[in-house]
Amino acid sequence: MQQAVHQYIQNRTFEEITVGETAQLVRTLRPDDIHLFAAMSGDVNPTHVDPEFARSGQFREVVGHSMWGSTLISSILGTEFPGPGTVYVSQTLTFWRPVTIGDTLTVTVTCKAKFSHNHHVVLDCLAINQDGLKVIDGTAEVVAPTEKVKRPRVNLPEVTISDKELRYQHLVSITSGLAPIPIAVAHPCDVESLRGPLQAAEAGLIVPVLIGPESRIRCVAEEEGFDLGSTRIIDVPHSHAAAELAVRMARNGEVEALMKGSLHTDELMSAVVAKDAGLRTGRRISHIFLADVPTYPHPLLITDAAINIEPSLEDKVDIIQNAIDLAHVLGLVEPKVAILSAVETVTPKIRSTIEAAALCKMADRGQIKGGLLDGPLAFDNAVSLVAAKTKGIRSAVAGQADILVVPDLESGNMVAKQLEYLANAVLAGVVLGTRVPIVLTSRADTAEARTASCAIAQLIAHRKREPLRS
Description:
By secondary structure, this protein is of the alpha/beta class. The protein folds into two domains: 2-152, Hotdog Thioesterase (Thiol Ester Dehydrase, Chain A, Roll); 164-469, Isopropylmalate Dehydrogenase. It has 16 helices and 18 strands. It has an eleven-stranded mixed beta sheet with strand order 10-9-8-11-18-17-12-13-16-14-15, with helices on both faces. It has a five-stranded antiparallel beta sheet with strand order 2-4-5-6-3, covered by helices on one side. Helix 6 (164-172) runs parallel beside helix 16 (447-469), helix 7 (191-202) packs across helix 16 and helix 9 runs parallel beside helix 10. It is elongated. The termini are far apart.
């Protein structure tokens, strides 16, 4: 009998309904319910969607839309009692107290009266919370169905709420309380490459020094309505000069980070790797994407997807160590490092599997420190416990990786961009292994991505200051 209830939806006709008969529904308010209701209705009252505003308001926390509770009444009337074929006539409700996240409402509708001449039914409506307190009460009048309806229950598609703005804010919040750092921005001569540093400055992350043709920078700012205020601008004739000056300022200690503007990556990096005037250290330079993926329980570091085209085994040692060091800065004590390949077994036919095995043994010997390595692992085994168990892989890394080490730039770039464009991931990008962190994003990236990347650079820069204070 219970199975039939789940498989079918059926009504109570006017003749079947008796005065005093009731139906009930229980629902718990989740954060996604608030976001979905706001998106559907367009009601973005900050009381419902802005935690900071809500904390300063009457209720001291985010509250659900009052009408969310009333839709639960509508749900009962339309699907259960009376059910399919019911037509709303009127409804009068009183809202006694707010519904907050985690509150469980028990909604009850009770037949109060029936009118045979027009098949109207009047129902008392009541919603109480988990503490037995009245939240909503009132009455509803409907036209009850006169014909029996029994239909297969429609299975609704799964709905995922993906709030990129909220996830960007979370990335930026990791530096809360830190002082802004001076950063040289090389050639910010288009909209997003200028908006990014200005937005990051407004968020208190950086103090930007804009290096490039001043007339072009000011032209972009004027066209877009950006307020440059007291932002320092150093006028140079072209992007090559901007890259060279930005690197020189970093070498001289005038800035604590670099940021790529609207010039090509090779152009900036050629100045960074210059033998005598660049920013090289004893460590191989590598790029790391920090990805916040809605379908993964924690952030992922992906390396290297932008600098090293075909890294050697020796290169990968530094690439992994750079990623582990960043993970430590982000608060991970022993990050789990998955070394990716197409398969999870070592085979001489695939070079990346042999290198993965060697890297794991090097970590055992202390040549790579601070992380827990495993590989080779296919992508599914690295991020899915189910996939790893299905293939019989026993590993502390498989299914819960913090860092994905890709075989080469091509595969890494594909992984990162697929997560961004198909899985709605939020990406931030930074270059390590240099004297200062470098915010290196794609020219197609938004200002928000650049701002999030600035937050990582700020965190790294402050960590670099620590030995100076000790």
